[in-house]
Amino acid sequence: MAGKFELKKSDSGKFMFNLKAGNGKVILTSQLYRTRAAALTGIESVKQHAADDANFERKTSAQGQPYFVLKAVNRQIVGSSEMYSSTSARDNGIASVKTHAPDAAVVDLTA
Q: Of 19, 73, 79, 105, which residue is 20 to 30 A from 7 by alpha carbon distance?
């Protein structure tokens, strides 16, 4: 089953998206955007930058949990992962983003 981007409006009225794997699990969450158009541009940025491993920054939270962020060429963060239980689980999350993002459909839930 293919991945998908779900475009949503937050409680604060800003726009954001989640990239979901084929199993429905969220594998990447965007930053908040002021406009729907900016969020759609963010989705295109994820699609463009997900293929290059150099755009993924592997991190560890203050509580010791591995996670990652995806950065655009301008080094701005376009998405972040959940916290993982191990570095191998985080690396599997990165692989899932690489697999699903480039061809993922956009489901607009803002209407």
A: 73
pTM for this structure? Answer: 0.92
Q: CB pairs under 8 A, 24+ apart, for 73-82?
A: 73/49, 77/31, 78/30, 78/31, 78/42, 78/45, 78/46, 78/49, 79/19, 79/28, 79/29, 79/30, 79/31, 79/42, 79/46, 80/28, 80/29, 80/31, 81/27, 81/28, 81/29, 82/26, 82/27, 82/29
Q: What does the pLDDT look like over 83-111, one tens digit per residue?
A: 999 999 999 999 999 999 999 999 999 97
